[in-house]
Amino acid sequence: MKLLTKTNQIYLTFSLVIYLLTALAFYQIIRLLIYDEVESRLKVERRDFETYVRKHNAWTSAPYFVENKIEVIPVSKRVPIREAFKDTLIENRYDGELIPFRQLTFYEPIHGVIHRVSIRKSLIQTYRLIEVISVAMVLFLGLLLLGMFWFQRKLSGRLWLPFYGTLARIKQFDLNNDTSLQLSKSEITEFNELNDVLQKMAAKMQQDYQSLKEFTENASHEMQTPLALINAKVEQLIQTEQLTETQTNWIESIYQASRRISRLNQGLLLLAKIENRQFSDTQSVDLSALLTEKLTDMEEVLSFKQLSINLQTTAPFAVQLPASLADSLVTNLVNNAIKHNQPNGRIELTSTADQLCLSNTGGQLISDPERLFERFKKESTGPDSVGLGLAIVRQICDSYGLHIAYRETGGIHEFCISHVLT
């Protein structure tokens, strides 16, 4: 969810709560004020009633009280002299509709007899006034809320425009290009400070990237040459007839160590190049077809190890990869399936449009499956294994939008590659 959207949601929710509480409070205040006015008028009517009774020592209906409903009833027992207000409903004698009234009840002696006097005033006009005020208030607050929300959204969009411009330029920034990151100035101090920090970071990253790129290129060239020379000289020494058996074993050990260093150098340099995105010739590659071709090319090795192949390719598994990395990924997967297989075992390839799985028979896994893709983590103890094959496969998948997973079921070791869902 975008920051502006989240901010607008919080602002709208908070405003709705505040406006609802304000509306309820305003309604109660208006209601109390109107009721206070009605009760004040009822008290005035009570004083008029009491004045009339004291003057005439009797009560008869008079036009003065026609507006209000007045009820005078003698009571037989003694009651406390007090007044009380309450709401009541009285049926209209014309249409039978119940009409709300506010009633004042008090006790007044007439001819020495205590009478209960109830003076009522209709609340129809009061309720209508409250309804009109409430509707007007809701409409006003609603329009105010919508206006404030629209204004805040427009204002936030304009204020955050430099930030989105900076974000767009960062997305287009490429370390492979020599062009430095250029960000425009803003009227907002915080955005200018952010742009300055980002430009310094980008410049430092470009410098470090170029240094690392030069190092890997130089190391790839400079280290391979002496290693190749060492291997060539060692091979010549091995072919010398004057060597003793002990010397031959020593030279053989040197030769194996030299070859191992060469493979380690190639693997680590390849990992560094993948991490630094130094492969840019991305193209569509059918990994299922490439794996099938690789297994066919290694038919002699498979026959020598007595391994059978089962291919189930229902659909091509197309990915976007540089051709060299696709070949490296396939080679490492096939080599792993052959190296850790067992005599009279099998290799199975299944392919769909969404997933590619390569499985092989083999022994029980010794190490933790979660660490299987770590560098220098290997199952085999042979001198030919350097522990970088699966790490290279994992790095290629992570760098190019693929996901690789391992699972073992009943002696079957399966590696599955799928597209990362975005």
From TrEMBL:
SMART domains: HATPase_c, HisKA. GO terms for molecular function: phosphorelay sensor kinase activity. Pfam families: HATPase_c, HisKA. Residues 218-412 form the Histidine kinase domain. The chain crosses the membrane at residues 12-34, 129-151. GO terms for cellular component: plasma membrane. InterPro entries: HATPase_C_sf (IPR036890), HATPase_dom (IPR003594), His_kinase_dom (IPR005467), HisK_dim/P_dom (IPR003661), HisK_dim/P_sf (IPR036097), TCS_sensor_his_kinase (IPR050428). It catalyses: ATP + protein L-histidine = ADP + protein N-phospho-L-histidine. Keywords: Kinase, Membrane, Phosphoprotein, Transferase, Transmembrane, Transmembrane helix. Its EC number is 2.7.13.3. This is histidine kinase. The lineage of its organism: Bacteria, Pseudomonadati, Bacteroidota, Cytophagia, Cytophagales.
